[in-house]
Write the structure tokens for this entry.
Amino acid sequence: MPGRMKLGVLTGGGDCPGLNAVLRAVVKTAINDYDMEVVGFLDGYEGLIENRYRKLTSNDVSGILTLGGTILGTSNRADPFNYPVLQHDDYIYLDRSTQGLQNFERLGLDVLIAIGGDGTQAASHGMAQKGINIIGVPKTIDNDLFGTDQTFGFDSALTTATEAIDKVHSTAQAHHRVMIVEVMGRYAGWLALASGVASGGDIVLIPEIPYHIDIICDKIRTRNRDGRNFSIIVIGEGAKPEGGEMVIKRMIANSPDKIRLGGISNQLASQIEGITTLETRVTILGHLLRGGAPTAFDRILASRFGTEAVRLSHEKKFGNMVALRGNEIKYVPISEVAGRVRKVEYESPLLGTAISLGTCMGVESLDVLKKEEVVIEE
Ligand code: F6P
């Protein structure tokens, strides 16, 4: 008779609403449906490498469905293959993946459910190749993970952004100002595009489409000429002007992806004021987008993901990430997801909707998004 299956779980990368909902679903499904034992690693892959964990029971996950953050803690610096270690006031980077594998084996674990974004999925792919049985769960407010139509966390961040832009809207109208709202999203514009459409933003600027300042100013002037003497601009933190650079807010020394973006909206505001003389104000939503209770949509998606991750564990379908396709929960090999970013494309239906609504994307034509045709020479 095989013994009870023992499952490890961790939450890695930047937090987002819904992490606790996944943990709750994992623990409840593991215990209720399969009589498994569950152990939670603390602070993402850091916990696996440093052997910091706690046993998780049904009581531990009771009452956490609506909580933001993660009861396990997280880290976006703990890449097992490139692990930062402080030495003489400086970081050196060591491959500590073998330590992770040993800790996994010493605990007698059968599978590790790793909940995280692109960095976590890439680390999981590496750990799977080292011999750990892994199931991935896609998380991020950026919605930029390959292989899934949507990550959990995105809908909650989108709701927060939309509510914030709605509030900025009324004050923009009252003061006849140009208002810029900057949202997170790194190199993908999903959050900016979706919150722009949801809140009726006049101009939406995303990293995938380098903008032209003249086109933005023309749109603002036209609106003013037509009697709509205020404008709302939604901009993704990774957006940049044509021929310009992204604005880097800070560099994090011991992070695998050291760049932290933020502040492009201030640059844009002073350019708009300079060209149009219209008063332009900036609101940067930043980490506000990562906090609070998950929306009902995210609670359900997180619960479905968590339950499916345990079912895949039971069926030993290791090396896969659970995914949303249409309205169905599927799974996809982590090897197909790791190292890839899902960006807004020319064909993205939401972009088409924005254009049909008359949203200015900061360019004359979207051709910049067209993939170059590959010409095969005879
Ligand atoms: O990937 C999620 C995310 O919130 C990005 O949108 C943002 O650029 C980044 O993380 C911020 O990371 P940190 O919390 O380290 O500042």
